[in-house]
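seq:
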Amino acid sequence: MNQQKKKIIIIDDDERNIFALDAVLKSRGFQCIAASSAKEGLHILQTHNDIGIALIDIMMPDMDGYEMIAEIRKKPVLKEIPLIAVTAQAMLGDKEKSLQMGADNYIAKPININLLLNILDQHLKNGSTNQD
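struct:
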């Protein structure tokens, strides 16, 4: 697998979540970059062309993850990056709404690391395959 495609951006307003995901993913050979807001995440995505996938928290103060996903999908240069919606408020309809807004997949917190690794592997090896 191409190393540059293994770079993951973690977009979450909770530093503890970033720290935990970063540690686990780095231990599995991934490179990580973090953003603590949707605006910062958008800036990083637009200025780094080596990101293979984005993990986007749904509950953020400046712009929620749904809005961010929709915003990313409007930008042709970012259209192909797989987006994984991550939420602690896993409620009925969240997965469907995430996918409808343009996410490629969805995972609830607390994150099942094996499930996350399977999702990452699927998208990084096979490209973006929407999970309807």
